[in-house]
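Researcher: Next entry in the queue.
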Amino acid sequence: MPCCLAIVLALIFPRIILVVTWFLNPAFISNAYGNWVIPLLGLIFMPMTALAYALAVTFESGATGVPGLIIIILAVLYDLGSVGGGAGSGAGS
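Model: Structure for this entry, 93 residues:
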């Protein structure tokens, strides 16, 4: 049950979860990224993708394996959908 709660919270608040993960388990983020610049950019622009990549690196096949790629692609679609979600509700609609 706590795992499902973490997934739901990550979907609702990906930036908060990324910051909390970064502070509570810095090895999780530092294993995926070489320095702090890329996760910081991920925090600003695509937080779900940054989390998904850090998770995919922990898989046995890594981020380039099929499970890792699926998670990263879903996270990119989520991030792009959350950014462009209001595009259809403009004044012209």
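Model: The chain has a mean pLDDT of 85.
Researcher: Noted, moving on.
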